[in-house]
Amino acid sequence: MCGIVGAVAQRDVAEILVEGLRRLEYRGYDSSGVAVIDNDHNMKRVRRLGKVQELADALEIEQVQGGTGIAHTRWATHGEPSEINAHPHVSEDIAIVHNGIIENHHVLRELLRERGYTFTSQTDTEVIAHLVNWERRSTDTLLQAVQNTVKQLEGAYGAVVVDRNEPERLIVARSGSPIVIGLGVGENFLASDQLALLNVTRRFIYLEEGDVAEVTRREVNVFADNGEPVIRSVVESNAEHDAGDKGEFRHFMQKEVYEQPTAIKNTIEGRVTHDSVITDSIGVHASEILEKVEHIQLVACGTSYNAAMVSRYWFEAIAGVSCSVEIASEFRYRKFVTRPNSLLVTLSQSGETADTLAALRLAKEKGYMSAMTICNVAGSSLVRESDIAFMTRAGTEIGVASTKAFTTQLAALLMMVVAVGKQKGTVDQAKEKEIVQALHALPEQIEAALKTEKEIEALAEDFADKHHTLFLGRGEFYPIAVEASLKLKEISYIHAEAYAAGELKHGPLALIDADMPVVVVAPNNELLEKLKSNIEEVRARGGLLYVFADENAGFVSDETMTVIKMPHVNEITAPIFFTIPMQLLSYYVALIKGTDVDQPRNLAKAVTVE
Ligand code: M6R
Fold first, then answer.
1. How far is residue 345's CA from residue 390's CA, in Å, rounded to a whole number?
2. Cα Rg of the chain (Å, integer)
3. pLDDT, tens digit, for every residue of 57-94?
4. Where's the Glutamine amidotransferase type-2 domain (predicted)?
5. What CATH architecture is 3-236?
6. Does residue 600 contact residue 491 with C-beta atoms inside 8 Å?
7. Where exactly does CATH 3.40.50.10490 map onto the chain?
8. The pLDDT of residue 242
9. Which residue among 27, 193, 353, 595 is best mutated to probe the pocket of ligand 1, counting the most ligand atoms within 8 A of its Cβ?
10. In angstroms, rounded to a whole number, what is the distance separating the alpha carbons of residues 78 and 337?
């Protein structure tokens, strides 16, 4: 989704801005732009449709230079992807970049038209530029103008404003869209994500909701939403510096699939002994909270939601605690009843997903006993606003299609299931040992699953010319099928659906024919025989089956069924294990189709708008 970078320095900042935008490219965007002001108060704006490289080339040709600048990658919400709609937007001497959505932009647009402003774009952002310009006419400082402006905005924004007449000043405002200020020596920076600035600084200030800040070369002054100055703490980041390097891999997604053994090792490290889960490692006061908990409400979006769905089976079957799962965009607008002693758990790779964040904020008002997040990005909004943050340690995930974030979420959830079960007395030592040892075994088992790569690459040929694919699973493998279908549609653009296999005969069976491959996730568990009956239902109707089966499940390939045999693993961690071949399948189908694997069309990595 949209990315922001800003810099104020003695040196030329154009290159810093472009490098920052490159580091945010993985988030998904359709156009980009910069505005740079030099010491003579000249402001140059350059915008381009397409990749950041096009912008970089244009900046070189136009010799854009200056010590103060703002830059943006845009992911269209209001107005088509085009150069005219790309940021920065300008109103005379004012330039602005903005993430988020201004919900009252229609009303403001009319008001500003009456005041004589002309609009050159279809964006909601342009109203902010004109509003700041209007306010600037009657205020002493740019800071005041921005403070007055944000009071009139409804919706979400992370915005940075510059004024050609004040060349060494950036004014930044945050409400609903993250902004981080990067501290340098005699120079300062800002961005929507610290990743953009890791090559220039490691020291960050995270703005809070409603903050407006004035950033110059030597000072950062932050003001809370009541206009009073506030001190926000400085955080040293130890985030990976080189996450942006694909190394020997062709795509980030492929690299991240291969990083899963390490990511899982890192996620469990220090949180489990060889046979038990260290409850306190989940968070301060975790033991007391988990002991009292009577219900767990999980809220998430997309892949994170699918991870939550898997854990619902675990929480109820293993820990004996009732658990509900809801898509954040539904939860936040539903008039729900809060159960007594219910723990809200949000799940998110980015920690910035707008709907999940809104769900957390709502839950805090609605009497949940506590709010926990399982998240991959330290310092993200979800982490900062939750009572407990249980971090997955997947490392930076660049590919839009979530892979290692998903499997590490599952590992974290499974540790939490054990911790809850221990506190409640529903998980005994033997069960705990079994699960912990299964977690320890996972990295090596995933290495083995990755070895099916060649077989799956060959199989992908069968899918690449199809328009639809059906994924089936039962129990906790149903959400694994859902996740597999999400991966396939997301990066190969093939329509894919997932069904709980027992639900087939209630409708989807009508779709079965030779043009609709049916992928089945078939572990060797208590539902195997039921699953085999469902497979027969497909076979009897001329369906083409691809069964990813436990080696002991007794499947044999024939002309209507291709069996991909997977090594046997513990039943409880099997959903994590079976995810790997599904990821590989979608990756190889996408390769054949020639799609943009890491930045699939229309999608963004961090969905910071509703
Ligand atoms: O950062 P989050 O985990 O909150 O993101 C939620 C979804 O947007 C995300 O999982 C999305 O579904 C993935 N791109 C799917 O691969």
1. 10
2. 25
3. 999 999 999 999 999 999 887 888 999 999 999 999 99
4. 2-218
5. 4-Layer Sandwich (3.60)
6. yes
7. 249-427, 451-597
8. 55
9. 353
10. 35
SS3 content of the chain, % helix, strand, coil (to 5): 40, 25, 40
* Cα distance between residue 271 and residue 278, in whole Å: 5
Host H or E run for residue 177? none
| 342: its two tokens | 């219910």
Superfamily in which the 249-427 domain is placed by CATH = Glucose-6-phosphate isomerase like protein; domain 1 (3.40.50.10490)
What residues does ligand 1 touch, defined as CB less than 6 Å away?
301-304, 348-350, 353, 356, 400-402, 486, 490, 606-607
Q: Angle, to 10 degrees, between the axis of helix 125-136 and the axis of helix 142-150?
A: 130
Whether the full predicted model's pTM is greater than 0.90, yes or no, is no
DSSP string computed for 573-589: THHHHHHHHHHHHHHHH
Cβ-contact 595, 491 below 8 angstroms? yes
Q: Give the integer Cα–Cα distance in Å for 42 and 328.
A: 45
pLDDT of residue 30: 87
- 586 CB-near residues (< 8 Å, 6+ apart): 401, 484, 487, 488, 490, 491, 492
Answer whether 97's CB lies under 8 Å from 87's CB: yes
- Residue whose CA lies nearest to ligand 1 atom number 9: 302
The H or E element spanning position 324 is strand 322-327
Q: Token pair 């002693």 is at which residue?
A: 341
- Residues 6+ away with beta carbon under 8 Å from 558: none
Structure tokens at 80: 């088509």
Q: Give the residue numbers annotated as catalytic, written as ranges.
A: 2, 605
Amino acid at 504: L
End-to-end Cα distance, the chain: 11
pLDDT in tens, 527-539: 999 999 999 999 9
| Per-residue pLDDT tens digits for 227-245 | 999 999 999 887 665 566 7
For ligand 1, pick from 304, 357, 392, 396 the residue to mutate: most ligand atoms within 8 Å of CB: 304
Write down the mean pLDDT value for the chain. 94
**CA neighbours closer than 13 Å in the CB half-sphere of residue 401:** 33
> Is the separation of the CB atoms in 568 and 552 below 8 Å?
yes
- CA dist list (Å): 143 to 43, 212, 317, 354, 377: 19, 8, 56, 26, 30
Question: Of 524, 541, 516, 545, nearest to 477 (Cα)?
Answer: 524
Instruction: State the architecture of 451-597 in CATH terms.
Output: 3-Layer(aba) Sandwich (3.40)
Q: Is the pLDDT of residue 135 over 60?
A: yes
- Our measurement of the distance from residue 443's CA atom to the centroid of its chain's CA atoms, rounded to an integer in Å, reads 23
Neighbours of 475 (CB within 10 A): 22
d(CA 587, CA 494): 12
Residue 599's SS3 state is coil
